[in-house]
Amino acid sequence: MVKLRLKRCGRKQRAVYRIVAIDVRSRREGRDLRKVGFYDPIKNQTYLNVPAILYFLEKGAQPTETVYDILKRAEVFKEF
To answer: Which Gene3D superfamilies match (predicted)?
Structure first.
């Protein structure tokens, strides 16, 4: 099963996150299938590759709660 979840990047006390499609059995920093977005909670910036996200959602990928909130804020589910 594939999930859309956050992968931590950046340095200490200055985290930024990549939104990735990743296998459920992989750890947080494990190998991802594809990078589909970027989230910076400090600057409150997001970049989303909407066609790639919609592709994975159509194939049955489940977003985590945090990623779901980010996608809902960006109104991705209106297109889905």
So the answer is: 3.30.1320.10
Closest by alpha carbon to 71, among 55, 51, 52, 48?
A: 48
pTM above 0.85, yes or no: yes
Closest CA to 19 of 56, 58, 1: 56
Q: Show pLDDT as tens, one digit a residue, over the chain (80 residues).
A: 999 999 999 999 999 999 999 998 887 778 889 999 999 999 999 999 999 999 999 999 999 999 999 999 998 888 66
Neighbours of 8 (CB within 10 A): 10
Continuous segment of H or E residues that includes residue 74 = none
Looking at CATH, the fold of the domain delimited by 1-76 is given as: S16 Ribosomal Protein; Chain: A; (3.30.1320)
